[in-house]
Amino acid sequence: MFAHLRSKHFVCEVRGVTLKCRQGDCVRCYSTFNSLAYHLRVHHASNSVRVDSSHGTSGNNCADDSLASPSGISDGPVVVSSCPSKDATSKAASFVATLLSSTSVTQRNVQSVVDHGSDLVSGIVDDITRDVVHFGASANVDVSELVDQIQNYRKTFEVLDSQHKRLSCFCKNYDMVRSRAVFLGNRYDQSIDPSTGYMRHIVKRDTFQYVPLLQLIALLLSDASVHREVEQGHLSSDDVMRDLCDGSLFKSNPLFAEDPHALQLCLYYDECEVVNPLGSRRGIHKIGFIYAM
């Protein structure tokens, strides 16, 4: 339905556009197709409309262009599996993780891509299902099992359609190491009290985000290529300095002198300006980062 609204009626998710339910006396309004679809599935699941799925129909009628369910296979409804293909879900998770790794992509952008990608996959599944059903009917072949397998791909992005689900999926299936807030102490800021007009002190909690280093190293070493590079020696054999382990500082260190295969971690500190670097508030909103290499 949402793919039809975009392609035929040019309805899309833009700022200022409100999507109304209008099912019976329901007056709920939403700003995204994903939230409206969830509302329809939960609160109006019984208001289903059967649409004729005749092949090769043309015209501008909405019913003719709609994508119907494969009800021609049997008298009962098609039973859809509760979980999609694991391979398809893994590829979708990898796709979303690649988007999140980009510094210029926000959570709002990722949510929009996931919503539109889910609609695209649903449209493709509907097209394939309709062709398979048409072929089965013409060849007098039972394709219900094949249709069930195809329908599994409809829910490819189901475990990734919200920020909470994405975080849960990455932590559960891919051992993502989450940061945790560490309390540093309290500080006192001055602010003007709007009711009195006088300055007042406000207590602020200072925290920093810490990524557990041991868990992060364990996750990196679980990759075979990373583990192979760590186990492989990098000492130069021709007295030419190519790495840190070729220098005198490395050789004089008691830890590396005893165990040349000990992990070598270099800490690097950098700051990031989160506001306009040319504005009046520059310099007071910097965030410091400590990188481990």
Characterise the protein shown here:
This protein has 293 residues and is an alpha+beta fold. Among the domains are: 1-48, no CATH class; 55-174, no CATH class. The protein is 40% helix and 15% strand. The protein has helices spanning 2-9, 33-43, 62-65, 86-100, 107-139, 144-151, 163-174, 213-221, 224-231, 248-252, 254-258; strands at residues 19-20, 29-30, 180-192, 199-210, 267-273, 286-292. It has a two-stranded antiparallel ribbon. A two-stranded antiparallel ribbon has the order 3-4. The longest helix is centred in the middle third of the chain and has 33 residues, at 107-139.
List the helices and strands and how they pair.
Layout: H1 2-9, E1 19-20, E2 29-30, H2 33-43, H3 62-65, H4 86-100, H5 107-139, H6 144-151, H7 163-174, E3 180-192, E4 199-210, H8 213-221, H9 224-231, H10 248-252, H11 254-258, E5 267-273, E6 286-292
Give structural attributes.
293 residues, alpha+beta, two-stranded antiparallel sheet, 11 helices, 40% helix
Question: What composes the largest sheet?
Answer: 2 strands, antiparallel
Assembly type of the shown chains? single chain
Residues in β-strands, percent: 5-15%
Tell me how many strands there are.
6
Mean pLDDT: 76
**Alpha-beta classification:** alpha+beta
Indicate the radius of gyration in whole angstroms. 28 Å
What is the topology, as strand order, of the major beta sheet?
A: 1-2
Question: How helix-rich are the residues, as a percent range?
Answer: 40-55%
Q: Extract low-pLDDT stretches.
A: 48-84
First-last Cα distance: 49 Å
By DSSP (H or I, 4+ residues per run), the number of helices equals 11
Q: What does the overall shape look like? A: flat
Return the string of H and E elements.
Answer: HEEHHHHHHEEHHHHEE
